Amino acid sequence: MVSYEKINTQVSDKIENPVVDFDQYTQQIINYLQQLPDEVINKVYIQYRIKILLKMKSNPYTKTLQLAYVQSL
User: Fold this and answer.
1) Residue 23 and residue 50: Cα distance in Å, rounded?
2) Residue 48's CB: how many other CB atoms inside 10 A?
3) For 14, 15, 33, 60, which has the most beta carbons within 10 A of its beta carbon?
4) pTM for the complete prediction?
């Protein structure tokens, strides 16, 4: 016969999501993308487009609101 003790626990510690600071990686990402051949990626306004993309990916706003913002640009 197996007996189990009733465990009564409460979670008091808040688990926080890790925050990735994309700004520190932006220039490195841009440099890597600029090394690709022109046939692979359109490099016109690449720095601006990468910064917008990273802000969108790291932003807590809903996808619909993000899309509306990008379309308004």
Assistant:
1) 10
2) 11
3) 33
4) 0.48
